[in-house]
């Protein structure tokens, strides 16, 4: 997704973060430094709590302590609860216990550091142990992972950071805010006149054409998951980063991208990720959620669900109304 500025252009900040690109827009240009400070603080906090790639992160400590009880921080507990809720809503299609499967596929370092062409053989696939085996008490924040289990909170933690940053920044500056972290986007506060216009694309970092599809967002969140951007080759296979917990393998390619609107980015990301994992079953599952969604098949065919509007160029982008998953 790419943000198209409205006629009265808001102030914008763009910088790398969490292995992707952070984009911040505010309706009041003078408030940009304060909003950016909020966003950067949230990004530092989520990285320190939930990064798989930092030896000093709380997630690394928790994974190394699998099999033993440990007490986690409030920030980590919030991220874990978001991940467990995602697993519950998707019946395990989005499962935080895929950490070892990700490592086995070679995604054991930041994406920028991956070998694009890796000739090493692939080890046997490692299906996820399953989120239901996690023992966690939210009140005491006591957590016990099954032995040999590794958590990966990446997707939902990034979406949670977008939600937290957008709402905290809007409360701080008293104006409209848009936060985008890769494919995860949340808006808060009063939007600009005409709303936030969002151009849809496979890769958020690539320029989009003036005539590409777009929507207008005035509240809530959008998330896009896809299999075209974070890919690498190993042992002659093309791999991508969205793993099917049931197999430990990259999800079977059915949809190039899945974009979902919801009341919060965590729910939108949960549904878009589940759609990629579910493949042919995604349409029926998404209908059951009643969330607006746009799926793009490998051949470019577009499926719109839940009231998602027809494709429109950015200048006249129709509105998409986020909802709550049912």
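-> sequence recovered:
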């Amino acid at each position: 997704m790419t943000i198209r500025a409205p006629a009265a252009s808001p102030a914008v900040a763009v910088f790398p973060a969490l292995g992707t690109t952070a984009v911040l827009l505010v309706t009041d240009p003078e408030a940009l430094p304060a909003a950016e400070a909020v966003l950067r603080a949230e990004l530092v906090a989520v990285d320190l709590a939930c990064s798989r790639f930092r030896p000093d992160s709380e997630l690394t400590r928790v994974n190394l302590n699998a099999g033993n009880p440990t007490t986690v921080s409030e920030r980590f507990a919030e991220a874990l609860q978001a991940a467990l809720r995602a697993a519950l809503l998707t019946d395990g299609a989005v499962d935080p216990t895929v950490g070892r499967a990700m490592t086995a596929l070679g995604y054991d370092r930041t994406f920028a550091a991956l070998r694009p062409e890796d000739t090493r053989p692939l080890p046997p696939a490692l299906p996820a142990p399953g989120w239901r085996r996690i023992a966690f008490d939210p009140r005491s924040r006591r957590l016990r992972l099954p032995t040999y289990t590794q958590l990966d909170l990446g997707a939902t933690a990034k979406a949670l950071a977008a939600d937290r940053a957008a709402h905290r920044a809007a409360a701080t500056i008293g104006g409209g805010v848009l936060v985008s972290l890769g494919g995860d986007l949340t808006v808060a506060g009063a939007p600009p006149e005409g709303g936030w216009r969002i151009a849809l694309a496979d890769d958020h970092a690539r320029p989009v054409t003036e005539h590409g599809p777009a929507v207008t967002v005035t509240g809530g969140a959008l998330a896009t998951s896809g299999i075209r951007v974070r890919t690498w080759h190993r042992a002659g296979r093309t791999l991508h980063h969205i793993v099917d917990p049931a197999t430990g393998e990259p999800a079977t390619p059915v949809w190039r991208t899945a974009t979902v609107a919801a009341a919060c980015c965590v729910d939108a990301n949960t549904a878009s990720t589940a759609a990629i994992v579910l493949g042919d079953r995604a349409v029926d599952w998404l209908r059951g959620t009643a969330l607006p969604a746009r799926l793009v098949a490998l051949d470019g065919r577009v499926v719109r669900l839940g009231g998602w509007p027809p494709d429109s160029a950015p200048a006249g982008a129709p509105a998409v109304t986020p909802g709550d998953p049912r």
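The domain at 2-316 is CATH 3.10.520.10 (T-fold).
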